[in-house]
Structure formats: structure tokens, C-alpha cells
From TrEMBL:
Domain Methyltransferase type: 69-162
SUPFAM superfamilies, per database record: S-adenosyl-L-methionine-dependent methyltransferases (SSF53335)
InterPro entries the record matches: Methyltransf_12, SAM-dependent_MTases_sf
Keywords associated with the record: Methyltransferase, Transferase
Key word Iron present: no
Annotated GO MF terms: methyltransferase activity
Native source organism of the sequence: Dyella psychrodurans
Name under which the protein is recorded: Class I SAM-dependent methyltransferase
Protein's UniProt keywords contain NAD: no
One GO-annotated biological process of the protein: methylation
Length: 269
């Protein structure tokens, strides 16, 4: 799609310029002592998120990312990278972890938004050109995933996109070397996964974060199940689905506006 016919500017050019700026910028090395996600792959995981967001962005028709929501933001594992990819954007950092939200506000200048256990009761006062949802749908039931994804889609700008992650087919194999949940819980997950394409089981209380209540555990979803759920959300289109794309681990999907059935100019609606 040509964005400027006089200079021949395409989405490829727009994204390439942003990536060049990101590569030349310095990503913050400030780590919260409370960041439980910090490990030897910490920065690689953030870079991989940028790679996937850039691919989705190139597939979209939005040449300007002005407002970004990172949910759940944690302590800025991905946010610190997005600040460099979109240096002129406004950022909202949202999480149930109050300390993580405060860290993102104080360290990265994001607007702090303390989330709610039921995300559908979280009402945002703006729309977003990008919503990044890294490793949230990996921890909730299919009913919640459908409901929360549909809720977040309501806050996309007219050409906004949401990029999210799931535990896909590869994660069935990852479990053998990196168990996500107890063996009993994993059997429950696999039973649902094999029968419907989406499996889920709650964590035991000792496995879960203290600030979370209700349905929170591990999910495993086949690509067709995720796509089928996306197809039920009105007003959007599917941009991409990539297996084991986030740091060679989680699957990545992207949705956007306008809707898949948005008519061509002059075409009857």
C-alpha cells in the first residue's frame, strides 16, 4: 500500500525507518530488583517482541503509532524496547502488579494504569494504535481469552493493531524440559487441548502470584482454535499468525482494524 504516492512511501519503508532508529538507540538496562522475569534471555525476548510487532505493523495500514498500551507490562521487559521503536508515542503501562506499574511509570515515563482482575471492568479513556499483550492469554481459560480479547479490540484506533501471544503446538514439547504446571494440571490441559484445541487448568495456590484471584493458570491452544475465536470478534481482521515466533517459544497473532469486510471506496456496504 502506497502511503504517499509522490515519494512512493510504503509500509515497508515506514517500518524499515523505525527499525533502523530502534537498532541505533540504546535500550534501558535498568532492572527492577522485583522483576521475576529477569534472566539471561531478558533482552532477547524484548527484541523478539519488536520483531513480531514490526511484522504485524508492516502488514497493517497505519503509518503512525501514536499511543501504545503494554498489558501486562510487568517491569518493562518489552516496554523498554517499544520506547525505542516508537520514540514519539505515548505509552500506557497496565498490570495487576502495582509495583511493576509504578516502576514502568518512574523509569520509562509511561502512564501507570493499575489493572483489574476482571479485565472487562477495566475501561480505558483512549484508543490505541498498538496494544501489546505478551503472555496473558497463555494463562487464562478459553472463555476468558475470548472475552478479554474482544474487550481489548474495542480500544483499537480506526487503524490500530493488537499483537498477542499464546502457548501453541510447540509448547506441548517445551513442557517436557520446562514444565509450566504440575503433572496433574498438565493432564487436565492436555485433555482439553486434544478434545477441543484449547486446554486450560488453574494453578494450585502455591504456584500462582499472590495478587491474582480466580481463573489463572496455564493454557495450550492450537492455531485453529485461536483463529476461530478471532473470527467471532466483530469489526476486526486477522493480520498474522506465527508459530513459536516470540523468542522461539510462544505463538504470536495479530489483529487490527478496520474490519475484514470494510468495503472498498464506492462499494456498497
Amino acid at each position: 500500500m502506497l502511503l504517499n504516492k509522490e515519494i512512493g512511501m510504503t509500509m515497508f519503508d515506514v517500518v524499515a525507518q523505525a527499525i533502523a532508529g530502534y537498532r541505533s538507540a540504546e535500550v534501558s538496562r535498568t532492572i527492577s530488583p522485583s522483576d521475576t522475569m529477569y534472566n539471561q534471555w531478558y533482552y532477547e525476548i524484548g527484541e523478539s517482541a519488536v520483531d513480531n510487532i514490526a511484522l504485524a505493523w508492516q502488514a497493517s495500514s497505519n503509518d503512525r503509532i501514536s499511543r501504545v498500551l503494554d498489558l501486562p507490562c510487568g517491569h518493562g521487559r518489552v516496554l523498554r524496547h517499544l520506547l525505542r521503536l516508537f520514540p514519539d508515542a505515548h505509552f500506557d503501562a497496565c498490570d495487576l502488579d502495582e509495583e511493576g506499574v509504578a516502576f514502568c511509570a518512574n523509569t520509562f515515563g509511561a502512564r501507570p494504569l493499575l489493572s483489574k482482575a476482571d479485565l472487562t471492568t477495566m475501561h480505558f479513556d483512549t484508543s490505541y494504535d498498538l496494544i501489546w499483550v505478551g503472555s496473558l492469554f497463555t494463562h487464562i481459560s478459553r472463555d476468558l481469552a475470548r472475552t478479554w480479547l474482544s474487550h481489548l479490540a474495542n480500544y483499537l484506533s480506526p487503524r490500530g493493531m493488537l499483537v498477542g501471544t499464546t502457548h501453541g503446538r510447540w509448547c506441548e514439547h517445551v513442557y517436557k524440559v520446562h514444565p509450566y504446571i504440575s503433572p496433574e494440571g498438565w493432564r487436565v490441559v492436555l485433555n482439553g487441548y486434544k478434545s477441543s484445541g484449547y486446554g486450560y487448568c488453574d494453578y494450585h495456590p502455591e504456584e500462582s502470584h499472590t495478587y491474582l484471584r480466580g481463573s489463572y493458570g496455564i493454557s495450550l491452544a492450537m492455531p485453529h482454535a485461536t483463529v476461530a475465536d478471532i473470527e467471532q470478534i466483530p469489526g476486526i481482521r486477522l493480520l498474522m499468525y506465527r508459530e513459536r515466533a516470540w523468542s522461539d517459544h510462544q505463538d504470536v497473532f495479530a489483529i487490527c482494524k478496520p474490519a475484514f469486510n470494510d468495503p472498498w471506496p464506492g462499494m456498497p456496504a
